[in-house]
């Protein structure tokens, strides 16, 4: 599974951005896709998750402002970010949790990461 994140940029406080995470490879093996963010010197935190079944989960800090969605036909997961605040400034990463079996029947599990995309919220 390979992931390509895009959509970051500079936005004013109160503005909106939409991040995209394009998946390729063994897309059918993906069970969940998440967005995370990281500020230099701090740990990477989960922001939002969407499962294969369409269930979503959000960090408390973004509930009501961020929406995670997917377009199965485009193999893309989106993170719509509204009412952006200074504290949303971070590098955003998408990840995919995948599992399947090899041709010989051996199970495998992995978490793939996309490259980060920088979101900067300014006044």
String of helices and strands: EEEEEEEEEEE
Please estimate the helix content: under 10%
Q: Please tell me what the overall shape is.
A: elongated
E-strand count: 11
Mean pLDDT: 96
Q: Which sheet architecture does the biggest sheet show?
A: 7 strands, mixed
Give the percentage of residues in beta strands: over 45%
Folded structure, characterized:
By secondary structure, the chain is mainly beta. It contains no helices and eleven strands. The strands form two sheets. Strands 2, 4, 5, 6, 9, 10 and 11 form a seven-stranded mixed β-sheet that branches. It starts with a strand and ends with a strand.
What order do the helices and strands come in, and which of them pair?
Blueprint: E1 2-6, E2 9-12, E3 17-24, E4 30-38, E5 45-51, E6 56-58, E7 66-71, E8 76-81, E9 90-101, E10 107-113, E11 117-122
Parallel strand pairs: 2-11
Antiparallel strand pairs: 1-3, 3-8, 4-5, 4-9, 5-6, 7-8, 9-10, 9-11
List keywords for this structure.
single chain; 123 residues; mainly beta; four-stranded antiparallel β-sheet; 0% helix
């Amino acid at each position: 599974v390979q992931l390509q994140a895009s959509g970051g940029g500079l936005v004013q406080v109160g503005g909106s951005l939409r991040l995209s995470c394009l998946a390729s490879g063994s897309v059918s093996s993906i069970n969940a896709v998440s967005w995370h963010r990281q500020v230099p010197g701090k740990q990477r935190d989960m922001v939002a998750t969407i499962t294969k079944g369409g269930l979503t989960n959000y960090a408390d800090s973004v509930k009501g402002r961020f929406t995670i969605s997917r377009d199965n036909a485009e193999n893309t997961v989106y993170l719509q970010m509204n009412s952006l605040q200074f504290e949303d400034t971070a590098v955003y990463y998408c990840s995919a949790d995948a599992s399947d079996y090899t041709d010989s029947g051996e199970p495998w599990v992995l978490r793939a990461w996309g490259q980060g995309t920088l979101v900067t919220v300014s006044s």
